[in-house]
TrEMBL record:
The organism of origin for this protein: Mumia zhuanghuii
CDD domains (UniProt xref): arch_bact_SO_family_Moco (cd02109)
Name this protein carries in UniProt: Sulfite oxidase-like oxidoreductase
Domain (Oxidoreductase molybdopterin-binding): residue spans on this chain: 35-179
Pfam families according to UniProt: Oxidored_molyb
Length: 199
């Protein structure tokens, strides 16, 4: 199943590309991290959804691989102003992982190995908008890009696609994550240039 985000229409020349405001087209894949790269072996990896009542739903690496896996084609937009178009990923939709999770929480905090966090409305993780991704361009996701698995939320700036993701905490009220506490925008819509608080 292929998923395509806004602005992707196949092979294009630089002049034909529709990018969000203030973005430039990047052919490489820059590596940007706030700290050291965690080294997490797939066998030691797990993903846990914790509800607002403390209920836990947990998947090991092997259990994740047995779920419905999707091939996804999306554009990426980084708050540092680069955009990379037509990237190919494989992973499990958050719709699959949230199926059967009883919650009324409207918000989620993504937690990563290494301590990174980022907050998102739960609605932005549903309806085919987000994945736990573990392959990029046909290869296992490398640690510097968030491997063994990262959150992939391509309709928001890329800092919301938490690297080295290990779980979601479902929350009744919104709380800022790592970059949001440092002054980044709470939501991060690249088409509205929501880079920093107040944008």
């Amino acid at each position: 199943m292929g998923i395509v985000t806004r602005g992707f229409r196949g092979r294009r020349d630089r002049e034909e590309v529709a990018l969000p405001p203030g973005q430039y087209l990047e052919r490489g894949f820059p590596v940007l991290s706030a700290g050291p790269t965690p080294q997490v072996a797939p066998g030691a990896w797990s993903f846990t959804i914790t509800t607002e009542t403390g209920g836990e739903h947990r998947w090991s690496w092997e259990e994740l691989q047995r779920l419905l896996i999707e091939d996804v084609t999306v554009d990426l937009h980084c708050v540092t102003k680069w955009s990379k178009l037509g990237t190919h990923w494989r992973g499990v939709s958050l719709d699959v992982l949230l199926d059967g999770v009883a919650t009324t929480a409207p918000y989620a905090m993504a937690h990563s190995y290494g301590g990174y966090t980022t907050n998102l409305p739960l609605a932005d993780l549903r309806d085919g908008q987000a994945w736990v991704a573990f392959e990029y361009e046909g290869q296992p996701l490398r640690p510097e890009h968030g491997g063994p698995a990262r959150l992939l939320v391509p309709h928001l700036y890329f800092w919301k696609s938490a690297k080295w993701v290990r779980g979601l905490e479902l929350m009744p009220t919104d709380q800022p994550g790592f970059w949001e506490r440092a002054g980044y925008h709470d939501y991060g819509d690249p088409w509205r240039e929501q880079r920093y608080a107040g944008d």
